[in-house]
């Protein structure tokens, strides 16, 4: 009977990976209990954007097996590590960058991290925006201080299910950092390599805006899975975003996608939509960089950030939070596809990214 179930499951393809669940090794359990079939699918990320589709496809395929009256589908998830894992225990390092300041890069990084963690992933968040570190505040821990463990490794702080490190938790509050290039380089090295991150599926790195030394130093310090570029749809932001894309291309860091923030505004009183910065402009960056999502301007995103609670957790039903959660899942799916692409010896020709 198990063979019949497995044969049926061989007809179900992962909708993103375009391969059947059996050959992808995603079927953890397939058993009959009377007329009830139990199937456990081990996803490649807990933030799988197409879990609902996989569930209905599995159900339909298994229900067609003679003798099956009902199906119970359950899920687990194991994020597969990049071919060359970033750090011991860290499966993927994802950089969040922008060409220009103030476009909402830190807000996106914090919400991505919180959303992935809520979906069940093990997530770290590194604030590499050394000149204007805002992660500590946005995570609600501006006063916390970083300590070291017995091996003299920095212990990340933790909030909202996310481990994080920010320069703001090292220096006295309100004091500016006057570190120069080489010191910054070694500070970032330490944040990455001399910290006890433990086992992480995703380490999200909030970069400083622009295309300077810190960004380059990071791409040289650690094997990075890819970068996400945050921009507003405004031309001046897009010109700078294109520069950031170019920098990553030159540093051989794949651009996993673009997030268009402050994409539009829906007036709460009239419901009218205003495209304040010109919606959809990020498509001008080129079709080879997938648009991971359009995040509306939303006063709650700003208020939640100020109060130290990511919008995806504080107001999960708002349009902005839903869009941010969608970005996190699309990104996780994108990483799964790329990882499979680079780790499978025999590539299916129809393997596509978003
Ligand atoms: N979608 C949004 N709706 C409303 N406010 C937003 C949105 N995104 C970001 N903001 C607000 O805009 C301001 C700038 O955001 P943020 O600090 O995330 O930008 P940044 O690109 O990281 O800036 P920098 O790197 O220059 O410090 C913050 O006050 C933030 O709360």
From TrEMBL:
Residues 2-74 form the MIP18 family-like domain. Keywords: ATP-binding, Hydrolase, Iron, Iron-sulfur, Metal-binding, Nucleotide-binding. Pfam families: FeS_assembly_P (PF01883), ParA (PF10609). The keyword ATP-binding applies. GO terms for molecular function: 4 iron, 4 sulfur cluster binding; ATP binding; ATP hydrolysis activity; ATP-dependent FeS chaperone activity; metal ion binding. In the N-terminal section; belongs to the MIP18 family. This is Iron-sulfur cluster carrier protein. It comes from Deinococcus ficus. The lineage of its organism: Bacteria, Thermotogati, Deinococcota, Deinococci, Deinococcales.
């Amino acid at each position: 009977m198990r063979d019949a179930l497995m044969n049926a499951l061989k007809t179900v393809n992962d909708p993103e990976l375009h391969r059947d669940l059996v050959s992808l090794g995603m079927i953890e359990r397939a058993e009959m209990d009377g007329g009830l079939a139990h199937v456990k699918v081990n996803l490649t990320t807990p933030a799988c954007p197409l879990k609902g589709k996989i569930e209905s496809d599995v159900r339909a395929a298994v229900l067609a097996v003679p003798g099956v009256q009902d199906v119970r589908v359950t899920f687990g998830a194991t994020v597969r590590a990049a071919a060359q894992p970033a750090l011991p225990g860290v499966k993927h390092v994802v950089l969040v960058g922008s060409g220009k300041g103030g476009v909402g890069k830190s807000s996106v990084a914090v919400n991505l991290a919180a959303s992935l963690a809520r979906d069940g992933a093990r997530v770290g968040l590194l604030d590499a925006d050394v000149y204007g570190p805002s992660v500590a505040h946005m995570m609600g821990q501006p006063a916390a201080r970083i300590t070291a463990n017995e091996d003299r490794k920095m212990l990340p702080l933790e909030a909202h299910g996310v481990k994080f490190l920010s320069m703001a938790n090292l220096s006295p509050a309100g004091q500016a950092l006057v570190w120069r290039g080489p010191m910054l380089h070694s500070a970032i090295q330490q944040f990455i390599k001399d910290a006890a991150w433990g086992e992480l599926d995703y380490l999200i790195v909030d970069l400083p805006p622009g295309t300077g030394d810190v960004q380059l130093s990071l791409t040289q310090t650690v094997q990075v899975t890819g970068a996400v570029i945050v921009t507003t749809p405004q031309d001046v932001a897009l010109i700078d975003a294109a520069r950031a894309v170019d920098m990553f291309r030159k540093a051989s860091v794949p651009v996993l996608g673009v997030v268009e923030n402050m994409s539009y505004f829906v007036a709460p009183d009239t419901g009218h939509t205003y495209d304040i910065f010109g919606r959809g402009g990020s498509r001008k960056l080129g079709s080879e960089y997938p648009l991971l999502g359009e995040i509306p301007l939303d006063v709650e995103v700003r208020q939640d950030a100020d109060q130290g609670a990511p919008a995806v957790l504080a107001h999960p039903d708002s349009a902005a939070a839903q869009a941010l959660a969608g970005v996190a899942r699309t990104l996780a799916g994108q990483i799964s596809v790329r990882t499979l692409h680079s780790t499978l010896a025999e590539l299916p020709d129809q393997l596509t990214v978003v």
